[in-house]
Specification:
Number of helices of chain A: 9
Structural class of chain A: alpha/beta
Structural class of chain B: mainly alpha
Strand content of chain A: 25-35%
Order of helices and strands of chain B: HHHHHHHHHHHHH
Number of strands of chain B: 0
Radius of gyration of chain A: 18 Å
Largest sheet of chain B: none
CATH superfamily of chain B: ABC transporter involved in vitamin B12 uptake, BtuC
Number of domains of chain B: 1
Oligomer: heterodimer
Radius of gyration of chain B: 20 Å
CATH architecture of chain A: 3-Layer(aba) Sandwich
CATH topology of chain B: ABC transporter involved in vitamin B12 uptake, BtuC
Distance between the termini of chain B: 21 Å
C-alpha cells in the first residue's frame, strides 16, 4: 500500500501540491488525470523520490520512503518517465538490461532470461541489437517500458507511457499493465487521454489546481460534470469514448 | 570470439610491435653502438619515452570515457571541465615563480594540485546550485575552466620574454622524462584504470541522467565522485608530466564507440589500448619521420582531427 500523508510540494515560492492525502492499493491500476499544471507529474516525481516533499510524508508498506536504501527502493518501485534522452548508442538489449541493476549479483542466466522475455513481450526482438538512437520515438518508449518491466518492482509509476506509440501498441501497453496489476502490483499512471483513462484504469484520481477534485472508480468519477468542472469542455462519454458537444 | 575481444587482441599485438619498433628507432642505432652507451640511451631515453607515451595515451583516453559518461555528453573531455586548464595553470604558475624569484618549484605537483582544485570548485558549485546533474557540472566546469585559462594568459603576459618555456610546456611533449616519474605514472594509470573498470556498469546507466540512475538503484553521488576523482587523477598526472596533449581523450572513446557500440564495459579497455597506440604512433612519428621534432600535442590534434572525420564519414553506427 502506498500512502501519501498531507504532502505539500513547492518549487521555490510556488506551491504545486498543497496538503494532499491519498491512498493507493496494490492490485489496482490508477490513473491520475487533470489539466496542465495540476501537479500530476510532480506527484509521481515525489513518490519516485526525484524530488523532496516540502512537508508531509509518503509511506510504502508502512515505511517512510525516505528510509529505503536506493537499491531496495529500486526493487520496490520503478518509474517510467515522460522522456529520457539516450545520448549514446546503447542497444535495446543493453538498455533493458539496465533495469536489472538492483538485482546484480544474481545469475547471468536469470538476467538474460528476464531481459529477453521483456524484449519479446514488447515486440522488440528484431531490434534487439540495434542502437536505440536509431529507432523511432514509439520504439524507444517501448524499450523503456521493457526496461521498467525488467526492473520487476511491486509499484510501477508511468508518466504518459507510450504517448508516441501506434494504437496497437498503446492498447497492448494497457493490457500489459493490467496483467502486472493482476499479479498484485500497483500501477499509477499520469495520462491525458481521457478515453484510455476511463477504459483501462480501475480508479482515477482527478486533480485540479486546488488539489483532489474527485477520486474513485473510473466510470463514477469521470463524467459530464467532471469534464465541465475540471477540463472546461462540454461533452460526455459514450462507451468510454469522449464525445464533445 | 566476440568482436571486441578480437579488436583488443589486435590492439595489444600492434602496441607490442610498435613499442619494439619505437625503442629501436631514433637518431642513433642502438645495435651498432658501444653497449654501455646503448644501455644508457635505452634506459634513460628510449624506454621512458615509449612507456610515457603508452601510459599518457591510456590515461587520457580512459579519463575521456569516464567524463563523457558522467557528463552524458559524447563530446566532453577534460577541457570541458577545466581540469586540463587547471593543471596547465598550476604548472605555468610554478614555471613563472621559478623564473621571477629564481626558485626551483617542481611543476608536476603544482599541476596535479590545481587539477584537483578545479574539480573541487566545480563539484562544490554544482552542489551549491542543487545537485550533480550534468547541466550544473558542465556550467560550473566551463566557468572554472575559463577562469583558469584567463589566469594562464595573465601568467603568459606577465612572463614577458620568458614565455617560451611555458609555451613549450603547454604544447605537450614526451621527451626526456625521468624513469622514476614514468613508473609512478604507470602505477597511477593502472590503479585508475582498475577503479574505472569497476564502475563501468554504473557509468552506462549514469549516461541516462541522475534521476534515471537513482531509479534503478545507483548511489549516484558516490559513484559520481569516485569516477570524477579517478578521471581527474588520470588527467592531472598525465598533464603534469607531459603538458597538454589534445584530442586523445575526445576522439579515442568516440572511435571505439563507432566500432563496438556504447557499452562502457567494452569501450573502456579498448579506449585505453587505442589511446596508448595512438599516442605512441604520434610520438614515434614526430621524432623519426619529421626533420624537425614537433611537439606531439600538436601532431595528435592535427592528425587526429582529419582521421576522425574520415572514420566518422565512412562508418555510421
Amino acid at each position: 500500500m502506498l500512502f501519501i500523508q498531507n504532502v505539500s510540494i513547492a518549487y521555490g515560492q510556488h506551491k504545486v501540491i498543497n496538503d494532499l492525502s491519498l491512498e493507493f492499493q496494490h492490485g489496482k491500476l490508477y490513473g491520475v488525470i487533470g489539466p496542465n499544471g495540476a501537479g500530476k507529474s510532480t506527484l509521481l516525481n515525489a513518490i519516485a523520490k526525484d524530488l523532496h516533499v516540502s512537508s508531509g510524508a509518503i509511506f510504502l508498506n508502512g515505511e517512510d520512503i525516505k528510509h529505503y536504501p536506493s537499491k531496495d527502493y529500486a526493487r520496490k518501485l520503478s518509474y517510467m518517465r515522460q522522456r529520457t534522452d539516450v545520448k549514446f548508442p546503447y542497444t535495446v538489449w543493453e538498455l533493458v538490461s539496465m533495469g536489472r541493476y538492483a538485482y546484480e549479483g544474481g545469475s547471468k542466466r536469470d538476467h538474460d532470461k528476464i531481459v529477453l522475455e521483456k524484449i519479446r513481450e514488447n515486440d522488440l526482438e528484431e531490434y534487439m541489437h540495434k542502437p536505440v538512437t536509431e529507432m523511432s520515438g514509439g520504439e524507444v518508449q517501448r524499450t523503456f517500458f521493457a526496461k521498467i518491466l525488467a526492473q520487476d518492482s511491486h509499484v510501477i509509476l508511468v508518466d504518459e507511457g507510450l504517448s508516441n506509440a501506434d494504437i496497437f501498441h498503446k492498447v497492448k501497453f494497457f493490457e500489459q499493465l493490467q496483467r502486472e496489476v493482476a499479479k498484485g502490483k500497483l500501477v499509477i499512471m499520469v495520462l491525458h487521454d481521457l478515453f484510455l483513462a476511463r477504459r483501462f484504469c480501475d480508479e482515477l484520481v482527478i486533480l485540479n489546481k486546488e488539489g483532489i477534485y474527485k477520486a474513485g472508480r473510473s466510470e463514477a468519477v469521470l463524467n459530464r460534470q467532471t469534464l465541465n468542472d475540471v477540463f472546461m469542455v462540454q461533452g460526455d462519454f459514450v462507451n468510454d469514448a469522449l464525445v464533445l458537444e | 570470439m566476440k568482436k571486441h575481444r578480437l579488436i583488443n587482441i589486435g590492439l595489444i599485438l600492434a602496441l607490442l610491435c610498435l613499442s619494439i619498433i619505437a625503442i629501436q628507432t631514433g637518431k642513433v642505432n642502438l645495435m651498432t653502438l658501444d653497449p654501455e652507451i646503448a644501455k644508457t640511451i635505452f634506459y634513460k631515453i628510449r624506454l621512458p619515452r615509449v612507456l610515457a607515451a603508452v601510459f599518457v595515451g591510456s590515461a587520457l583516453a580512459t579519463s575521456g570515457v569516464i567524463l563523457q559518461g558522467l557528463l552524458q555528453n559524447p563530446l566532453a573531455d577534460s577541457y570541458t571541465l577545466g581540469i586540463a586548464s587547471g593543471g596547465a595553470f598550476g604548472a605555468c604558475l610554478a614555471i613563472f615563480l621559478n623564473i621571477k624569484f629564481a626558485l626551483t618549484l617542481p611543476t608536476q605537483p603544482f599541476a596535479i594540485v590545481f587539477s584537483y582544485l578545479v574539480i573541487m570548485i566545480v563539484l562544490g558549485l554544482s552542489k551549491a546550485k542543487g545537485d550533480l546533474s550534468s547541466t550544473n557540472v558542465i556550467i560550473a566546469g566551463i566557468i572554472t575552466g575559463s577562469f583558469f585559462s584567463a589566469g594562464l594568459s595573465l601568467l603568459k603576459s606577465l612572463a614577458d620574454e620568458d614565455v617560451a618555456s611555458m609555451v613549450f610546456w603547454l604544447m605537450g611533449n614526451l621527451s626526456s622524462k625521468p624513469m622514476n616519474n614514468v613508473i609512478i605514472l604507470g602505477v597511477v594509470v593502472l590503479v585508475g584504470f582498475i577503479v574505472a573498470m569497476r564502475y563501468t556498469k554504473e557509468l552506462n546507466i549514469i549516461t541516462l541522467g541522475r534521476l534515471e540512475a537513482q531509479s534503478v538503484g545507483i548511489d549516484y553521488d558516490r559513484v559520481y565522485r569516485i569516477m570524477m576523482v579517478t578521471a581527474v587523477t588520470l588527467t592531472g598526472i598525465a598533464v603534469s608530466l607531459c603538458g597538454i596533449i589534445g584530442f586523445v581523450g575526445l576522439v579515442v572513446p568516440h572511435l571505439c564507440r563507432i566500432f563496438i557500440g556504447a557499452d562502457n564495459r567494452k569501450v573502456m579497455p579498448m579506449s585505453a589500448l587505442l589511446g596508448a597506440l595512438f599516442l605512441l604512433t604520434a610520438d614515434t612519428l614526430t621524432r623519426t619521420v619529421l626533420q624537425h621534432e614537433i611537439p606531439v600535442g600538436v601532431l595528435t590534434t592535427m592528425v587526429g582531427g582529419p582521421f576522425f572525420i574520415f572514420i566518422f564519414l565512412r562508418k555510421t553506427r
